Amino acid sequence: VQRDADNTLEGENEGTTLQAASVCGNLNMVELLLANGADVNSQGGVFRNALQAAARAGSLGIVKRLIVNGPDVNAEGGKYGSALQAVAFSANLDTVEQLLTAGADVRAPGGKYGSALQAAAYSANLEIVKLLLEAGADVHTQGGHWGTPLQAAAHVGNLDIVKVLLEKGAEVNAQGGAYGNALQAAARAGNHDVVKLLLDKRADINAQGGQFGTVLQSAAFFGNLDTVELLLDRGADVNENGGSVGTALQSAASKGHKDIVRVLIENGAELSAHGEHGTM
């Protein structure tokens, strides 16, 4: 590095030169920059600091090296809110352990996924979910794109993670997030086994929330026939109105799902029901 080179210069995305080297996993470059005075806590860029950048890359060696220089392991900001959330999303168990050992706050809020636990649930890494829970992660934490860790796990369809979260006391009917609740998130994605489990755990089958209003409307809109039939068998209100489309029948009809339209009509769906798009 030349004497007059600015190794803290910020770029639009990577932030500083040290962050750029960290997110690329270039340990030799990180060593060189640190040896020439790069500030390990310099802020900026999409990952906010070098530690979060290295964590997102899942680079254990760089994370260890940065920690030697005394970074703030709980620095807030950036796409993932914290280094721990970034590495939970990248699904690198060893690096999660390293950050926890260094004092990372397992309950730190913020970032795209609201918490490290929600990020781990969304990335479908059971071992990291278990580790975070053992370290004191709050299973009820609200925030982020999915609202709760349970909703994130339900959407990606990881039955084992859903079971673990429920065993740890996750509220099956918690509201919030992109799809209103865990049941609607699972139904939207066609995760039939998760839908069954949530119903067995007394999820409210007619709960309102999210873009589509109810779980039946969501399943109907996305063409998940098996889930529609299951919901009807479990007592879903076929004529419940709400959400962006109106009724389950309108949801199915708007997407051309003839088999679902037929099943809904056979189960008492009203052709004259009013909703976002008027009547059938």
TrEMBL record:
Organism encoding this protein: Mycena albidolilacea
Lineage: Eukaryota, Fungi, Dikarya, Basidiomycota, Agaricomycotina
ANK repeats: 13-45, 112-144, 145-177, 178-210, 211-243, 244-276
Identification of the protein by name: Ankyrin repeat-containing protein
Protein's UniProt keywords contain Disulfide bond: no
Keywords for this protein: ANK repeat, Repeat
